[in-house]
Fold this protein.
Amino acid sequence: MKSNELKSSELRIGNFIENTDSQMASYMVVNADVIKQNEHSMYASLEPIPLTKEWLLKFGFKHQYKTIEDQDFFEIIIDCNFKLYVSLNKMKVSICKKYVGNVYSKKIDYVHQLQNLYFALTGEELTLKP
């Protein structure tokens, strides 16, 4: 099994994945049919989408700063006490609590992983912003 092969256990309805079956690779939104069919056989044409600056901006993350080591940091406010930071160069997500600092860090590589973490924290979907 390839390291980026999707398993149905990783997917939730609403996750974005890449459909490489078409002439031009494009993303698609996971629905119940995709999960059901993916439980029985892996789709060769469905792959996770690498997390990029463009995806973070589409989700409403704000570019905060660039470090001396050329690392880009992005932030999204979860509520008045918590913020979610992404260090794009290290592919690390950190949850920070006001006045406490970093309370949790996890390495992530793909868009659906960020969507799932956000949903676990907020109970809401991480959606594309206009």
In short: The chain has a mean pLDDT of 77.
